[in-house]
Design a protein that fits this description.
With about 140 residues, the protein is an all-beta fold. It is about 5% helix and about 30% strand. The chain has a single domain, classed as Immunoglobulin-like (Sandwich), CATH 2.60.40.790. It contains 1 helix and 7 strands. The N and C termini lie far apart (about 45 Å). This is PIHD3 protein.
Length: about 140
């Protein structure tokens, strides 16, 4: 068994390192906030009543991922949010969340809003899908 590598001194290949591992910080004492991942899709009457487009309630047919993060005792100005194609990294003075997303997202077309009464940050991200028999546009 022989592993081919670009540099013989490397101890692993870049394919072996999970995406987003550069954000992992095991020494950070901040706790992880509670969060919820929801999937969203736009459905019309042709989907619900006639089944013409082939959409179903599974996550494979969803267009958006909505992540609701509970941040008690946090101000909007204290939140740092970084979104990559497969990773969401959230930092506040008291909380830290590194979330590997279930699907690749378009990191340039996301939106976030902070609901101050509920103390929840709501992040909506557009899923980046390959074209197939369900996703034409």
């Amino acid at each position: 068994f022989q592993v081919k590598s670009e540099n013989r001194k490397t101890i692993w290949n870049t394919e072996e390192v999970p995406e987003g591992s550069e954000f992992d910080d095991t020494w950070d004492p901040r706790e992880q906030p509670e969060y919820e991942i929801l999937f969203k899709q736009s459905v019309g009457t042709e989907d619900v009543f006639f089944g013409m487009t082939g959409k179903d309630p599974s996550t494979a047919c969803c267009e958006d991922i909505v992540i609701k993060i509970k941040l008690p005792e946090t101000k909007y100005s204290d939140i740092t949010l970084d979104i990559q194609d497969k990773v969401l990294d959230l930092r506040t003075p008291k909380k830290k969340l590194l979330l590997h997303l279930p699907y690749p997202v378009n990191s340039k077309e996301g939106r976030a809003r902070f609901l101050s009464e509920e103390e929840i940050l709501e992040v909506t991200l557009r899923v980046s899908r390959q074209f197939d028999f369900l996703h034409f546009a």
